[in-house]
């Protein structure tokens, strides 16, 4: 019957991190919705075109529910069935983003992310295993993986990061 | 992870991995073998490998195996990050090599080791390289891990077991006690995973599942995720049980609407909305929490709320009206998906006056939304057209502009179906609708849609004021398209030629061109139509072009096979072929695509089933082919001792009454059951076929065959009184063993009426006018009647169709509102294969007055039909 979900632990169909050209930085597909690399890339292209301009968090695409979040030059996506509980997918996305944010000490940016891509792989692996949600708390995720203690010095922050953090601060001060 | 190539970083758009290459990386992997191990360097290489796999690079089996062997060495170092990367690499590469088991030992050690940080990941990596054959070796460790006190280990073990149960269900099932224990774990994720696995292992066993649900409903859960799972299981149980909503499972789901987690609240609300046959009262609490969702600041919450409300609006538009104000706020939402959902929901629930405003709003961002939503919009428009016929013209404009936009097959199909539904409903929109469709097929890549539209043009085009303008569009298809479209176009052209005399010469020359087509089907059609049209005889045109065959195709196949089996001098008789049964209520499905796929079983198959059953009874062999079977009539009340239903089968000169009897008494067996029929009016019972034994609750069939009087062929109606006669034997309700002796008894049944409709089969004549001319006025009868018992034209039409048993043509069974006169056209085939047509002119004036004109190829048929009313 349409709309009624088979009770199953399988929740997430894919997690993606794309850059601001729509290029794949990280992609995990957990089922056979897009079995070949070509189909996956076609989907990612369509997905990026439909989402990179609007900052609207959720969309229905090719019969799938997509929740997403963009930040400077990175786009995070969590994809599930159209009948899936959207809030559940959202909690996965939030966890992915929070963990990465914690890992990169708020410098969520392509260059820094790539420098720490090994830890990002581990984070995704801790959050979803084979389509099953493992963890939705960013702090717990970071506890599970060990990180190297090398600091990112302030000098390494690029103009865009500074701008972004300045923007955030202004936004927060306005909201208060 | 500093890679130390900073200059290159900048060149490659900041991506240090953009230059790496598979073979080079795998070469580098050789340093895994060096001692001492350099964790940083090795880690870097492992990252590159994972990155390559992640990009979709294919690594061959040999390469993977080599890497695996090299990697065994890395377990000597205890560097935390490197070990974690090893696990990940093992998982990623596990399916690429058959030798993955070589790391089993190391992983088992880590899994049972002291370092908690390794254990969970080791469990998952180990299960990734384990299959059903090697699973037994680690079974002991898995059982321990499931109940481990460290939550991450327990979760890892549960989820890995869930993955493994696909191939090794029976092994995993042995761990059910451990899984059950974990269900009461305090950690929210462990509880969720345990519940999910437990259900998965037990779902085949309904009783165990419902016990499990009952237990957790009582004890409650900690984890919101586990709650969602439980809600899904409970609603699945409700659906299977199909009992009312008074069960504890429904109460549980409803109580979850008051949970403190939004996740759970939403899951419960959407479970209630998705339940079949929910009443408005049961929906109300779910709708009110969803109303809260759509005013949330979070887009995903608004989306979830709007999506679920739009589902409610499909079935219970009135239940959503309360949310209309909140939905109005969403129509300018920056998230177009949310705006679309809100607008389509409002279109279903709002009033006629708001339609224009909403449509204007939605067309402004139609290009920004995905195809799925466009289809949703079209469906909403389609539903709207049904509700407000006055909006047809406005809607047609929107639809035509949507048809011109980009879009996939499903989207275009939805639009085309919607336009066709509109132009069939409202004559005013017909011309504009047709011209929009013409424009569309000029540039249409979907064969199915093109043929559908061309067929429609062939049917509707010739009736318009200026038919010639459609010829160009159709002929362009003949030149440009593939075979299927060309064939359809040729057929459509022939229809124009048959109906518009002034166009005939041009049509003939167009068809002449197609007679040289390279495709067989197109050529055959063109040749056939060309020569038929060249005769310039209306009768031929009507019979072979406009109204086609009305027989059932499978019936025709069977008759032809039988004909070929026995050598016969006589030519094949088309009149002996069973007619195509007409599915009723088909017209409505086109306009409301959501209600489709309910009844796929067509009446055609039902009649064939009867024909098959009857032909197996030797007594009925001589009767010939089955002409028509009626619907089943109840001859008893439903709650009585014996339930009898009757189906009337009409043959050429006989009627066979089929009585389906059911014995509802479990302490009786009936034997030798017959239904005695008392005939009158010249009807004569000529044979009975008894049902030898009728056991409790096992339906049995008995037949009676009645001959239709031949002296007076117009005498075709009568009332037959029926009594069921049988021998009763008492029996033991438990064993079903009957006593030896019984006694005779009888049971009165209700009368069976033989009506005119039993002698008439419905057929569709796509072009009534042509068929009317074809039959001619040789056997025309006309009479005027006053139908005093009916007060509206629609009722009159309904009654006439029922009495005559004929098919209404040209949608004339729909009386436009507010009219005081109406013409109903009917087509049918009378017993013996004579076609009958009737035209009833109805006028509403103190009751309904009807002038009925009947034409038939047989004068008896015409007389019978004329006498049916009155």
Feature tags:
heterodimer; A: 176 residues; alpha+beta; Beta-Lactamase; 5-stranded antiparallel β-sheet; two-stranded antiparallel sheet; 6 helices; 7 strands; 42% helix; globular; B: 870 residues; 6-stranded antiparallel β-sheet; 38 helices; golgi apparatus (chain A); transport (chain A)
Q: Could you describe the 3D structure shown?
A:
- The complex is a heterodimer of chains A (176) and B (870).
- Chain A is of the alpha+beta class.
- Chain A has helices at residues 37-51, 86-103, 110-115, 117-127, 138-144, 159-175, and strands at residues 14-19, 24-29, 58-61, 64-71, 74-81, 128-129, 132-133.
- Chain A has a five-stranded antiparallel sheet, sandwiched between helices. In chain A, strands 6-7 form a two-stranded antiparallel sheet.
- In chain A, strand 4 (64-71) and strand 5 (74-81) form a beta hairpin.
- The radius of gyration of chain A is 17 Å and the shape is globular.
- Chain B has 870 residues and is an alpha+beta fold.
- Chain B is 52% helix and 13% strand.
- Chain B has 38 helices and 17 strands.
- In chain B, the strands form three sheets. In chain B, strands 1, 2, 3, 4, 6 and 8 form a six-stranded antiparallel sheet that branches.
- In chain B, helix 6 (104-111) runs antiparallel to helix 7 and helix 26 (430-442) packs antiparallel against helix 27 (447-460).
- The termini of chain B are far apart.
């Amino acid at each position: 019957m349409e709309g009624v979900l088979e009770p199953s632990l399988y929740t997430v169909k894919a997690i993606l991190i794309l850059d601001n050209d729509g290029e794949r930085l990280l992609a995990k597909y957990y089922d056979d919705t897009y079995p070949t690399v070509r189909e996956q890339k076609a989907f990612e292209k369509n997905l990026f075109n439909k989402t990179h301009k609007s900052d609207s968090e959720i969309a229905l695409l090719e019969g799938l529910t997509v929740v997403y979040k963009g930040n400077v030059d990175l786009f995070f996506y969590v994809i599930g069935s159209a009948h899936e509980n959207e809030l559940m997918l959202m909690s996965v996305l939030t966890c992915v983003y929070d963990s990465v944010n914690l890992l990169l000490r708020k410098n969520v940016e392509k260059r820094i992310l790539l420098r720490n891509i090994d830890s990002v792989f581990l984070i995704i692996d801790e959050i979803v295993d084979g389509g099953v949600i493992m963890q939705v708390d960013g702090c717990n995720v970071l506890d599970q993986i060990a990180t190297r203690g090398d600091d990112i010095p302030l000098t390494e922050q690029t103009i865009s990061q500074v701008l972004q953090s300045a923007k955030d601060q202004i936004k927060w001060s306005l909201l208060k | 992870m500093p890679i130390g190539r900073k200059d290159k970083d900048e060149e490659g758009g900041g991506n240090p991995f953009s230059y790496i290459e598979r073979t080079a990386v795998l070469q580098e992997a050789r340093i895994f073998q060096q001692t001492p191990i350099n964790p940083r360097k090795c880690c870097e290489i492992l990252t590159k490998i994972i990155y390559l796999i992640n990009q979709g690079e294919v690594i061959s089996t040999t390469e993977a195996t080599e890497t695996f062997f090299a990697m065994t060495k890395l377990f000597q170092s205890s560097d935390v990050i490197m070990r974690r990367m090893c696990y990940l690499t093992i998982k990623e590469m596990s399916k690429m090599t058959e030798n993955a088991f070589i790391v089993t030992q190391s992983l088992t050690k880590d899994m049972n080791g002291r370092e908690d940080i390794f254990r969970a990941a080791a469990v998952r990596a180990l299960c990734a390289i384990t299959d059903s054959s090697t699973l037994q070796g680690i079974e002991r460790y898995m059982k321990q891990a499931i109940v481990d006190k460290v939550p991450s280990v327990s979760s890892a073990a549960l989820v890995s077991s869930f993955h493994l149960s696909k191939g090794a269900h029976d092994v995993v099932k042995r761990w059910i006690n451990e899984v059950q224990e974990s269900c009461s774990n305090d950690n929210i994720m462990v509880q969720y995973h345990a519940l999910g696995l437990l259900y998965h292992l037990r779902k085949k066993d309904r009783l165990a599942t419902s016990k499990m649900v009952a237990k957790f409903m009582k004890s409650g859960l900690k984890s919101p995720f586990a709650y969602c799972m439980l809600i899904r299981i409970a609603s699945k149980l409700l659906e299977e049980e199909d009992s009312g909503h008074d069960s504890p499972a429904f109460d549980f789901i409803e109580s979850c609407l008051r949970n403190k987690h939004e996740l759970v609240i939403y899951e419960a609300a959407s479970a209630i909305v998705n339940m079949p046959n929910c009443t408005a009262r049961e929906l109300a609490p779910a709708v009110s929490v969803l109303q809260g969702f759509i005013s949330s600041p979070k887009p995903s919450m608004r989306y979830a709320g709007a999506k679920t409300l739009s589902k409610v609006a499909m079935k219970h538009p009135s239940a959503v009206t309360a949310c209309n104000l909140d939905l109005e706020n969403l129509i300018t939402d920056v998230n177009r998906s949310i705006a679309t959902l809100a607008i389509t929901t409002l279109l279903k629930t709002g009033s006629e006056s708001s339609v224009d405003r909403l449509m204007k709003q939605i067309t402004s961002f139609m290009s920004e939304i995905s195809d799925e939503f466009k289809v949703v919009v079209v469906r909403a428009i389609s539903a709207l057209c049904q509700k407000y016929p006055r909006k047809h013209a406005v809607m047609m404009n929107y639809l035509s502009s949507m048809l011109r936009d980009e879009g996939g097959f499903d989207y275009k199909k939805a639009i085309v179906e919607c336009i066709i539904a509109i132009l069939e409903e409202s004559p005013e929109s017909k011309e504009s609708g047709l011209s929009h469709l013409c424009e569309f097929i000029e540039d249409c890549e979907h064969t199915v849609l093109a043929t559908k539209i061309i067929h429609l043009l062939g049917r509707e085009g010739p009736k318009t004021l200026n038919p010639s303008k459609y010829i160009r569009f159709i002929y362009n298809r003949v030149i440009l398209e593939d075979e299927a479209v060309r064939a359809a176009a040729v057929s459509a052209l022939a229809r124009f030629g048959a109906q518009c005399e002034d166009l005939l010469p041009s049509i003939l020359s167009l068809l002449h061109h197609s007679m040289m087509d390279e495709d067989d089907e197109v050529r055959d059609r063109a040749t056939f139509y060309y020569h038929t049209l060249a005769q310039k005889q209306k009768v031929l045109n009507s019979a072979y072009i406009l109204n086609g065959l009305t027989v059932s195709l499978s019936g025709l196949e069977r008759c032809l096979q039988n004909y070929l089996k026995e050598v016969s001098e006589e030519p094949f008789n088309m009149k002996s072929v069973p007619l195509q049964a007409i599915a009723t209520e088909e017209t409505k499905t086109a306009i409301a695509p959501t209600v489709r796929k309910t009844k796929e079983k067509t009446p055609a198959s039902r009649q064939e089933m009867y024909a098959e059953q009857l032909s197996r009874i030797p007594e009925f062999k001589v009767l010939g082919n089955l002409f028509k079977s009626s619907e089943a009539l109840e001859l008893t009340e439903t709650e009585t001792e014996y339930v009898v239903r009757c189906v009337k089968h009409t043959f050429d000169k006989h009627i066979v009454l089929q009585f389906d009897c059911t014995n509802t008494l479990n302490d009786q067996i009936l034997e030798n059951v017959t239904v005695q029929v008392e005939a009158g009016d010249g009807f004569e019972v000529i044979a009975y076929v008894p049902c030898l034994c009728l056991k409790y609750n096992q339906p049995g069939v008995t037949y009676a065959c009645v001959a239709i009087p031949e002296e007076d062929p117009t005498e075709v109606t009568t009332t037959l009184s029926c009594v069921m006669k049988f021998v009763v034997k008492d029996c033991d309700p438990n064993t079903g063993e009957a006593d030896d002796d019984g006694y005779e008894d009888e049971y009165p049944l209700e009368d069976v009426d033989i009506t005119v409709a039993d002698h008439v089969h419905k057929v569709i004549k796509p072009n009534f006018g042509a068929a009317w001319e074809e039959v001619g006025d040789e056997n025309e009868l006309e009479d005027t009647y006053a139908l005093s018992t009916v007060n509206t034209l629609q009722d009159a039409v309904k009654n006439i169709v029922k009495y005559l048993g004929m098919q209404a043509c040209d949608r004339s069974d729909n009386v436009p509102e507010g009219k005081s006169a109406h013409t109903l056209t009917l087509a049918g085939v009378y017993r013996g294969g004579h076609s009958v047509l009737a035209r009833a002119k109805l006028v509403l004036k103190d009751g309904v007055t009807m002038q009925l004109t009947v034409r038939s190829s047989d004068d008896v048929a015409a007389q019978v039909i004329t006498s049916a009313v009155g």
